[in-house]
């Protein structure tokens, strides 16, 4: 591919004053203001959410924070096959496999850590898992962390998270306007 | 020479060669499981069936010798259909537990499934349940469900290890590999069956679950376990060595490796010395190189300037290049006439590979030091001298010896001993200053085996810590004493060696093939 080099020219006085752009931007805001004032209820009406009093409901397949699924006895379903760690484009999954003492499951994760600060929430790990042991259905945003270490979530924490309850049929904007976050 | 036509290619063959041998050599791939170049032919997997003109049925190419004028087709529809069906059969009762199988990633079943089968399993019945995770011996674990009964492992024990520790039990679907009552699979070469097993039925309890194989980076090297100098592959990830595998070399180890040698992989990982240490009275403190080097050099310099004797001891695991620079230091700066050599104690030899001498480079170190006009001695005179405080300063280069306690005690009592080692042993604590050196996995240089074969050690990865080869530390010390040798890399050392030592002039390092070459101490 040929490389196109674009010269960076200095800004003119008109541009440097920024005033015309500020006015233009305000113009857009005002246009929406009056449209919403006049055309309430019509298709021109721009829907907004009064965050943080109201929260938009996420779609069914929103990829929130990961969780590990337990078996019936509470141990992780994960067999430490490393497929998620292999699929992960951000290299944020760290697994240490071990030989499990029980005869039924040979291999289990001695350590399973996800570095949420590195994670890009692509969901490849969920796709890769042959055991349905990892899901991103908690609906939880990445929390804010005070230190880098806090961003690394371990096996126990991942196991303790729950998935979102069964999604009701009706979802979307109408649900939001009633002020009821979906599924609660 | 008689010829055979395989897939339209006319190929010459020696009488007795099988179709698969001739085809593989010519780069024509025929899938196979049970055939192995170094084992007898069993022809029980039926994966290698090919079409031979005028033959009524498909023939197993591993068992069928070539005949003059034979016309073989390996890619016809009939062959492909057969391969697909054979593979379906092999996978009939397979548990497909690849996620927890160590072989995944280097499994023939996986590879051939992708290349020849790619169909759903026709099995509608419940799959046969068999033993899983059965410990056959100290190092080998068997999973009967994954086994395809190729009997490679059984044939290895019978034909190469020459001890029938494995056998086939039961019949048909229920057939299993097993050991005999009261006789576990404890042969000193037992881990070879893990390599031989084309599927994940036999796994090594040492490597088990440590890593997935697709993460490992492989590089060629030489085993440090004994004087045989077996060719190996180092499998490492992030500078941690996870396993050693045999590398084919018909002149040395063919394609085998003893269990003892395989377990030496820990030498590259365990208790590594990562930074210089300095001992003041009883306290051993880590020290940056910037401080440790002048401290050590000052010690050495005071002795050299006062024309006091300096004694040296060198490990038999050092490379020829390291030995050369150490010899140079001994002769040119320390005025020493002899160097003491130490190493691991004598072990037991066997008929297959193992040598009694457990040191990988005795021949090389002696040849180099001898070539430099130094006499080599045992450790005893060195110890005696240390105990009598004869040398003002002593250097102990390397840590590879069995009885390190005696040496450590003498070093501690003497007080002015400099030490270079890859591992933090009692020696490192006993020395005045210790410098970290590289393990066999990071070393670059040559070793000469007990059979007189010069082989190249290639670094699998760069040292991650302050570790540097012995020759670098020695050259740095010489530099601090005001002598610049310009011997920074093994290549420059080799150039100098070839100039000084006639034996090495005949064996240029650039020519040391991956498979090694014969070496004679007199350069003939
Ligand atoms: S254990 Fe492996 S090598 Fe032995 S018969 Fe089964 S598949 Fe073949
Ligand atoms: S390789 Fe020929 S039958 Fe197995």
List keywords for this structure.
heterodimer; A: 184 residues; alpha+beta; Alpha-Beta Plaits; 2 domains; three-stranded antiparallel beta sheet; 12% strand; elongated; B: 524 residues; alpha/beta; eight-stranded mixed beta sheet; five-stranded mixed beta sheet; binds iron/sulfur cluster; binds FE2/S2 (inorganic) cluster
Task: Tell me the layout of helices and strands.
The complex is a heterodimer of chains A (184) and B (524).
Chain A lengths: L12 H4 L2 H20 L28 E2 L14 H5 L5 E7 L7 E9 L8 H5 L5 E2 L16 E2 L1 H6 L12 H5 L7
Antiparallel strand pairs in A: 1-4, 2-3, 3-5
Chain B lengths: L2 E4 L2 E4 L6 H7 L23 E4 L6 E2 L10 E3 L3 H14 L17 H10 L16 E2 L4 E3 L9 H8 L7 E3 L6 E3 L13 H5 L5 E3 L12 E6 L8 E7 L2 E7 L12 H4 L14 E4 L2 E4 L2 H17 L4 E6 L4 H14 L4 E5 L19 H10 L3 E3 L1 H9 L5 E5 L6 H11 L2 E5 L4 H5 L2 E4 L8 E4 L4 E5 L12 H11 L9 H11 L1 H4 L11 E2 L6
Parallel strand pairs in B: 1-5, 16-17, 16-19, 17-18, 19-20, 20-21
Antiparallel strand pairs in B: 1-2, 3-4, 3-5, 6-7, 7-10, 8-9, 11-12, 12-13, 14-15, 14-21, 22-23, 23-24
Helix pairs in contact in B: 2-3, 7-13, 8-9, 8-13, 8-14
The structure holds iron/sulfur cluster and FE2/S2 (inorganic) cluster.
The site of FE2/S2 (inorganic) cluster has 12 residues of chain B, from loops.
Number of strands of chain B: 24
Secondary-structure content class of chain A: alpha+beta
Ligands, ions, cofactors: iron/sulfur cluster, FE2/S2 (inorganic) cluster
What is the 3D form of chain A? Answer: elongated
Total number of beta strands of chain A: 5
Structural class of chain B: alpha/beta
- Beta-sheet strand percentage of chain B? 15-25%
DSSP helical segment count of chain A? 6
Mean pLDDT of chain A: 83
Task: Kindly summarize this structure in a few lines.
Chain A is an alpha+beta fold and 184 residues long. Chain A is built from six helices and five strands.
Write structural notes for this entry.
The complex is a heterodimer of chains A (184) and B (524). Chain A is built from six helices and five strands. With 184 residues, chain A is of the alpha+beta class. Chain A folds into two domains: 15-56, no CATH class; 67-171, Alpha-Beta Plaits (2-Layer Sandwich), CATH 3.30.70.3270. Chain A has a three-stranded antiparallel sheet with strand order 2-3-5. Chain A has a two-stranded antiparallel sheet with strand order 1-4. The longest helix of chain A has 20 residues, at 19-38. Chain A starts with 12 loop residues before the first helix and ends in a 7-residue tail after the last helix. In chain A, 20% of the residues are buried. Chain B is α/β, with parallel strands linked by helices and 524 residues long. In chain B, the strands form six sheets. Chain B has an eight-stranded mixed sheet with strand order 15-14-21-20-19-16-17-18, sandwiched between helices. In chain B, strands 2-1-5-3-4 form a five-stranded mixed sheet, sandwiched between helices. The two termini of chain B are 36 Å apart. Classes of the chains: A alpha+beta (184), B alpha/beta (524). The A-B interface holds A 79-83, 86, 97-99, 103, 105-107, 130-131 and B 98-100, 104, 132-133, 208-210, 212, 214-215. Iron/sulfur cluster (SF4) is lined by residues 147-153, 177, 196-197, 199, 201-202 of chain B.
